[in-house]
Specification:
The structure is a single chain. The chain is built from 13 helices and 20 strands. By secondary structure, the protein is of the alpha/beta class. The chain folds into two domains: about 170 residues, LarA, C-terminal domain (2-enoyl-CoA Hydratase, Chain A, domain 1, Alpha-Beta Complex), CATH 3.90.226.30; about 230 residues, LarA, N-terminal domain (Rossmann fold, 3-Layer(aba) Sandwich). Strands 3-19-15-16-17-18 form a six-stranded parallel β-sheet, covered by helices on one side. Helix 1 packs across helix 3. The radius of gyration is 21 Å and the shape is globular.
């Protein structure tokens, strides 16, 4: 006899239910987030036309000749075709024609988006309708000064020159900026490598860390955004299955804070009072590439201890694109590359715990590029279970967190 638990798997590459099988002697608990229904088309359109703390998009765009829309890449969860068509129609109605609208992918230090990625993220109607570009963190940049904290500000010049500046982003938990979305689509999204380095370096040093709150790092990001300019910020809260649970448009801080309020409710996850031997943390919907896997620890690090001190933490990711790419932190020789085993997370927080990774699409070299040699790694889940039984015997209590977006309550 076995026990079967299903988790979502492979965002953008199938979005399937992945089977985790446990021996009958195990006690696996699936800890689900509260979640929400998806907005209807009418509700989405209403939200886009109900600005918070700013004029309407029609007012902003009137008598302007061109516009830029910044959106995230497929390392973030939501499909944007319907929303973007609504935005383009509004810009057209205000007098800005399609040929004068550019979409820029806010890559930060991530890999460029190809046509196949765009068809998934923004859909064929957008790909065939307007100019679509990738941000380049080393080129096409404009220097405009420093933030209050001394962050040098290099910004995408196409964005800087645009008369109407719009951004669409996902408000999902982030260990340094509290939540993604809002001003974060500007920094790091369309900033230069010097700006990215200063921003990420603060996080590596532990400055401003705070999952789910307005951190000091978030404040610096918003200071940069204020200097760069962002006319209309659209902030999206995700459902468990990557739909849009809420949309908040308007001022890049005020609308973002409203989105944070909903996100804290939608992603909320109750933790039982009992202690578990093992915690399994699934990276979906940020499971396209292995370089994102550390986010699987967000829930564990922000929760009251619910795994025994000598227990195990296991990250699970489809990593459909393999190791992935990050020009600042992920590649050998990159300015801020380091093995996570050298950080306080592994030297202090996880020092007495077992740490493992389950993924079918990477190899040991990928694992040890990012994580310490003591990490145990398996491509087959059954092998991971057998490995854990070597530590904890055949009767194991396990908690399964199925989404990287979840927040403990």
């Amino acid at each position: 006899m076995v026990k079967l638990v299903k988790v979502p798997w492979a965002a953008w590459y199938g979005d399937v239910e992945h089977n985790l099988t446990f021996p009958d002697s195990w006690e696996p608990d699936l800890l689900q987030m509260k979640d929400s229904k998806e907005l209807t088309s009418e509700e989405l359109n209403t939200a886009l036309n109900a600005p918070i703390g700013s004029p309407s998009l029609n007012e902003i765009s009137r008598h302007k000749e061109n516009a830029v829309i910044v959106v995230e890449d497929i390392s973030r969860p939501m499909k944007l075709e319907e929303l973007l068509n609504l935005l383009l129609d509004q810009l057209n109605a205000a007098g800005i024609e399609d040929q004068h609208i550019t979409l820029i992918y806010a890559l930060g230090a991530h890999r460029p988006m190809m046509r196949s990625d765009s068809l998934k993220k923004v859909g064929p109607s957008i790909v065939n309708r307007i100019n679509v570009e990738n941000h380049h963190p080393y080129e096409n940049l404009k220097y405009i000064g420093e933030s209050k904290k001394g962050t040098p500000i290099y910004i995408n010049q196409t964005y800087h020159n645009a008369e109407v500046k719009i951004a669409v982003s996902s408000v999902i938990p982030h260990p340094l900026a509290g939540f993604g979305g809002g001003a974060k689509v500007i920094l790091p999204g369309i900033s230069g490598i010097q700006t990215l380095e200063a921003n990420h370096q603060a996080g590596v040093r532990g400055i401003g860390i705070g999952l789910g709150i307005v951190s000091e790092l978030r404040k610096d990001i918003e200071d940069v955004c204020g200097k760069v300019g962002l006319d209309y910020s659209i902030n999206l809260v995700s459902t468990f299955k990557r739909g849009i649970a809420g949309a908040f448009a308007g001022h890049y801080i005020k609308a973002h804070r409203k989105a944070m309020e909903l996100a804290s409710k939608v992603y909320a996850t109750e933790i039982p009072s009992e202690k578990y031997d093992v915690g399994f943390f699934n990276l979906y919907p940020e499971d396209t590439e292995f370089s994102q896997a550390l986010k699987g620890l967000n829930f564990f690090l922000s929760a009251k201890r619910f795994i025994k001190r000598n227990g195990a933490v296991v990250l699970m990711t489809a990593a459909t694109e393999g190791r992935g790419y990050h020009s600042l932190q992920g590649e050998t020789g990159a300015k801020l590359y380091q093995n996570w085993g050298d950080t306080i997370i592994f030297k202090a927080v996880l020092r007495k715990m077992q740490f493992g990774i389950y993924s079918p699409n990477i190899n040991e070299a990928d694992v040890f590029h990012y994580y310490p040699r003591r990490t145990f790694f398996h491509r087959e889940f059954d092998e991971m279970v057998k490995n854990l039984e070597e530590f904890y015997g055949s009767s194991v209590k396990a908690a399964i967190i199925p989404s990287s977006n979840q927040l403990p309550t």
